[in-house]
Design brief:
344 residues
């Protein structure tokens, strides 16, 4: 019996210790949170006035580092131009940037990823070389945080490394795409240099991004991509020409209506309709009646966009021109639906 009593007393004492630890942690967290809130209330007017250009740089060397870092990072994500440069200047002046640079070499991955994200939030372009070195970090979360920050910092020198990471999947494709879009037009020269990449996924993403970030002067580059061996690249190029190509791209697109891949033909038809290429109308009407399902649907919408009257007439002719009218009607179903549906 005494053994059970001793065991019960020991468990009771252990429970008291655990309850005390929990209560102590909650009290500590509440105190830290209250101090951070008070520091934020004091620092915010000073920082806002400086970022707006209404006041000189405030003396913040003795300010609480955690509260100051969170405040600057929050505003760094919201502002652009001169205000963002001022955020970086404050981070450098107060030593926050140097602290974060040291954390990039920390043993714990969460410290490295947190420092990488914060450097991007603060707009510390001077940290780009160190961030580029971390793209080879052994931990995926760190690499993803670094890619995000390089996008925030608009680091054009990172374009090749970011695209290369798609080959082995070291960084998620969605993260790479976001970073390259954030880099913007400065990424175009690096994107155009991907024509010789072996991985078609890299070439396809490059074509998609050039189509989004580029201008009509990229039309010839996209026309060349229409001849790529991989259909994913040709689909992206066809869609890009519908956005950027203009009239000069019409001939290259018309030629691809005979592509061996149905997805490419559908994308080409859509772009021809978007550009309003009247010379492609007969070919589109033929595909709308006799083409495979997806190709016929895209060709029908394109034909209606170019000439709705001619498209409606072709639908009526295909639907009841002979004793096989029922068969022709089913083959022309996309064309008939498109003529009755408003074109967006």
């Amino acid at each position: 019996m005494p053994v059970f009593v001793d065991a019960g007393l020991s468990l009771g004492a252990l429970n008291l210790v655990l309850v005390g630890v929990v209560i102590g942690r909650r009290i500590f967290s509440a105190v830290v949170e209250r101090r951070a809130s008070e520091a934020d209330r004091v620092l915010r007017p000073l920082v806002v006035a400086f970022l707006a250009g209404d006041a000189a740089q405030p003396p913040l060397l003795d300010a609480p580092r955690r509260a100051l870092g969170e405040l600057l990072a929050r505003y760094g994500r919201l502002v652009q131009g001169d205000a963002r440069d001022r955020v970086a200047a404050l981070a450098a002046e107060t030593g926050l940037a140097e602290t974060l640079r040291r954390r990039l070499r920390a043993r714990r991955p969460w410290r490295r990823s947190g420092a990488a994200r914060r450097l991007g939030d603060l707009g510390m372009t001077s940290a780009v070389p160190e961030l580029l070195a971390l793209l080879d970090d052994r931990v995926r979360d760190v690499r993803q945080a670094v890619a995000t920050s390089l996008g925030q910092l608009r680091a054009a020198q990172a374009v090749g490394r970011l695209l290369g990471s798609l080959t082995d999947g070291r960084i998620p494709a969605s993260c790479v795409r976001w970073a390259l879009v954030e880099i913007g037009s400065d990424a175009l020269s690096g994107l155009r240099a991907t024509a010789g990449y072996r991985d078609p996924a890299v070439r396809a993403m490059a074509v998609q991004l050039v189509s989004r970030l580029g201008d009509p002067s990229d039309g010839p580059w996209l026309e060349a991509a229409l001849g790529d061996a991989d259909p994913r690249v040709r689909v992206a190029a066809a869609r890009g020409l519908g956005r950027l190509g203009g009239a000069p791209a019409a001939d290259a697109l018309r030629a691809r209506l005979e592509d061996s891949d149905d997805a490419v033909r559908a994308a080409v038809a859509g772009s021809l309709g978007r550009l309003g290429v009247a010379s492609a109308l007969d070919a589109l009407l033929s595909l709308a009646v006799d083409g495979p399902f997806d190709v016929a649907a895209a060709a029908a919408r394109a034909a209606v966009a170019i000439d709705p009257v001619a498209a409606r007439r072709a639908a009526l002719d295909a639907g009841g021109a002979s004793a096989n009218g029922a068969l022709h009607g089913r083959r022309a179903v996309h064309l008939e639906e498109a003529t009755w549906r408003p074109t967006p």
